[in-house]
């Protein structure tokens, strides 16, 4: 099945190219870049030169004439919606990795992003691109949104207790690697500024909180999401300090976690012992589409840490996007995504 990748020079675009290079049913027929059109794919992504030898980036105008089974959009917010609308009108299926179709109302989008939505007519039909929540909806969709890496980590950390209606309050911190900032460095993400720093980017309300509260039906008044930049390239460790509505036993929590995750192909639990492994570490999922989840319960039974670890470029972006595309095209969900994590990394 032919696929196109828009924004193919960025980190998420490169990950899509890497996954699709070994996908048994998808073939990249267009790596789209306005700035690099006519340049060899391997020049921008040296690690992929051997699999895309002879393939050049193409312009957006050339890409529009193609008829892919799925178009992946790894484009900036707002720009992505305009391209998505154009491709949908041409009858293409779209997986948009940006934030443009994650929220269900134009009012909420303006509240969080400060501008009018570029294509509000498509918000209602877009499926949120986390198959663990919306598998059946994604399979029938022609437009699927990106998940947002911090949102994906937070949702997977909190889902078992949120689904049970057990959360009174959740205070979340995501510890994130530098690749979350994208391939173009600025004064906040340049190595000389970021290296060896523990920099709190947003202490209370990161924009991804909008998706988390929407998808888990949590009131924003009882939820905060902060982001801290740490010494990683890839990876997110999500720590959610949760106050439970009522006292629970550890056995109760294990039952909730198993009920939520036992049948999910990409979600694993951390072991109960040794205790220093109970809080997931992203180094054990890097390079894969996997999620590690875990928890620790305080002696009072009311306070817990719900945690997760993902590779932000995989389960937080390109991996989830391919997982959704598999569902949209009737393929097995794990197709092309059975790669093992890299360790040590």
UniProtKB/TrEMBL annotation:
SMART domains in the cross-refs: Semialdhyde_dh (SM00859)
Gene3D superfamilies: Dihydrodipicolinate Reductase, domain 2, NAD(P)-binding Rossmann-like Domain
Pathway(s) the chain acts in: Amino-acid biosynthesis; L-arginine biosynthesis; N(2)-acetyl-L-ornithine from L-glutamate: step 3/4
Reactions listed under catalytic activity: N-acetyl-L-glutamate 5-semialdehyde + phosphate + NADP(+) = N-acetyl-L-glutamyl 5-phosphate + NADPH + H(+)
Compartments in which it is found: Cytoplasm
GO molecular function, one term: NADP+ binding
GO BP of this protein: L-arginine biosynthetic process
Gene Ontology annotations for the cellular component aspect, listed alphabetically: cytoplasm
Keyword Iron-sulfur set for record: no
The Semialdehyde dehydrogenase NAD-binding domain, residue ranges: 2-141
UniProt EC number: 1.2.1.38
Ribonucleoprotein keyword on record: no
Active site: 149
EC primary class: oxidoreductase
Function: Catalyzes the NADPH-dependent reduction of N-acetyl-5-glutamyl phosphate to yield N-acetyl-L-glutamate 5-semialdehyde.
Family membership noted in the UniProt record: Belongs to the NAGSA dehydrogenase family. Type 1 subfamily.
HAMAP family, per database record: ArgC_type1
Protein name, entry field: N-acetyl-gamma-glutamyl-phosphate reductase
Organism, as annotated: Synergistes jonesii
Lineage start: Bacteria, Thermotogati, Synergistota, Synergistia, Synergistales
